[in-house]
Amino acid sequence: xxxxxxxxxxxxxxxxxxxxxxxxxxxxxxxxxxxxxxxxxxxxxxxxxxxxxxxxxxxxxxxxxxxxxxxxxxxxxxxxxxxxxxxxxxxxxxxxxxxxxxxxxxxxxxxxxxxxxxxxxxxxxxxxxxxxxxxxxxxxxxxxxxxxxxxxxxxxxxxxxxxxxxxxxxxxxxxxxxxxxxxxxxxxxxxxxxxxxxxxxxxxxxxxxxxxxxxxxxxxxxxxxxxxxxxxxxxxxxxxxxxxxxxxxxxxxxxxxxxxxxxxxxxxxxxxxxxxxxxxxxxxxxxxxxxxxxxxxxxxxxxxxxxxxxxxxxxxxxxxxxxxxxxxxxxxxxxxxxxxxxxxxxxxxxxxxxxxxxxxxxxxxxxxxxxxxxxxxxxxxxxxxxxxxxxxxxxxxxxxxxxxxxxxxxxxxxxxxxxxxxxxxxxxxxxxxxxxxxxxxxxxxxxxxxxxxxxxxxxxxxxxxxxxxxxxxxxxxxxxx
Length: 481
Ligand code: URA
Hints:
By secondary structure, the protein is of the alpha/beta class. Helix content is 39%, strand content 14%. The chain folds into four domains: 122 residues, no CATH class; 67 residues, no CATH class; 53 residues, no CATH class; 191 residues, 3-Layer(aba) Sandwich (Uracil-DNA Glycosylase, subunit E). The chain is built from 17 helices and 14 strands. It has a five-stranded mixed sheet with strand order 3-4-5-6-7, with helices on one face. Strands 9-8-12-14-13 form a five-stranded mixed sheet. It is elongated. The chain starts with a strand and ends in a 7-residue tail after the last helix.
């Protein structure tokens, strides 16, 4: 028996060099006991050290091109038998160069199954790493806890580095920890879960949103469990809601089925006109709001509860524009009061922006939805509906004459610029609006609630960075009412 020791569980170069040495010396895979430094094992009684390298250059062993990436993936698997299996396949490939195409071969099937398991684990890491913000040296750092099935941290870290290049983050795991300081990635030994922070400020908003989008009619418990295995639930802020939502889903679905889609009664919630209300002063936002209450420029008015007009001081220096009111806004008659509004408020708060000093409105002033029983599911407004509503936004901007307009999301961008623009390319800089004021493009707050967990904290941080550009416009608040 020969003893082969690698410097780490993912020591690909070490395995490759050792395997070539063993092959050159004609050692069969079954004659090798592989171990990893620091993991116990090794030092078998009576085992031999590796045979010395052959004199002269190491002989070449030919393998099909597909073998290298497959083997590099399989070496990340946690099964200690992977080293022997790879050695066995390397040996067999010398005589059977097309072996990898034989899916029914037991060795090949095992190799493929190990590779699938590693890839799946990497996918889970990308999806379920949940960053939480902590203050570190007075600057934000994002820390996540993850328990991988395999040795994937180093191989998967570049994904997070590319995705979150601008943010400082640490991924803690029991095997390895990855730390990105904005310039370099460093790896350190694994740690215990108690070192990972438990909560951050975004989580309440995310829970509210998750409960509101959870659709019992689409619930497939088995699929949900396999896609989001219980072992990851501890990392996910929405996890505590899941058992109760599953338990109540049958009753909620039955109710939904009983209530087949119905057109909501037009304007059910529309407040009765107050006959004696004094007419607002002409040329003010209040007058414009009163005019817009009767808008019939597109069909969206009919099923909606009411026009949801903008709100804020007539003299605001900064105007924020969203897409259209949602379910809560439609009922309340005010923009950005639902889950996306709560996230928006939180971002303003963190930047020290007083919502009462800015004007908040939407590109489209009526809620567009599709009735599903008692639910009203958001529908994106069509181009014609955005166009029909544009005069209201233009008149709001004419009256307010802000210095900066913040377009949140694609619909606001289209309405303000008269054309669609890629948000990723236009954000982070001050642009010129055709009508005069400066404009800032960023994502819609509801995107931050919807986006995959792995990206949530970083996307929120980018949103804050975008909005930070509005701060200079708010320093002189004298113009605000
Ligand atoms: N989304 C919007 O775009 N506007 C709102 O007012 C609420 C949600």
